[in-house]
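In this section we walk through a basic example: taking a raw amino acid sequence and producing a predicted 3D structure, encoded as C-alpha cells. The instruction is simple. Fold the sequence below.
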Amino acid sequence: MTSTTDSSVCPTSPRVEVSGIPYFARMCDKIRSHAQGELHADYLPNLGGGYDKWTCEYLKVGYTELVDKVNEGLSDEAALEWAMETGGARTQQETDWWISYMKNRGYNDDLADILNQRKDTAGYGDRADIVSFFDFIDADEGRM
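The resulting C-alpha cell sequence is shown next.
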C-alpha cells in the first residue's frame, strides 16, 4: 500500500487480537470492506494470500468459506469460533508457534529481503524500528 497518514481508511492493525489471535480482526475487516466495495485497490492483489492464507491454514479453514461466514454477518469473535470449531483444535504449542511466526514475519527470515525492499520503496529504509511486516503495515498505515 502506498504510505498514508490517515489510518481511518486502512484495515485494523494486524496486532489487534481476537481471543488471543493476532491478524484475524484485520482479515475480517478487509473481508467486510471488500464486500462493501470500500477496500482500497492496493489491498486487492493479496486478498486471500499472504497473512490471510497463513491465518486460514492455521485455522484449517478455506478462505472462501471464511469470507462467506463473515459476509453473513458474523462478528470477528463468532467467525473465529466458527473457524476453530470447523477446523479443529490446535495445541497450545501450535498456537504459540503460529503467533510468533505471524508477528515476526520479515525478521531475519525468508521474507527479510522483501521487507527491506518495501521499506526502501516506502521511504522507511532508515527506520530501525520496522523489523517485521506487522511493523511495516502499522508504519505504512500511519499507526507508528
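Looking at the output, two observations stand out. The chain has a mean pLDDT of 93. The chain has two domains: 12-90, 105-144. In the next section we compare this with other chains.
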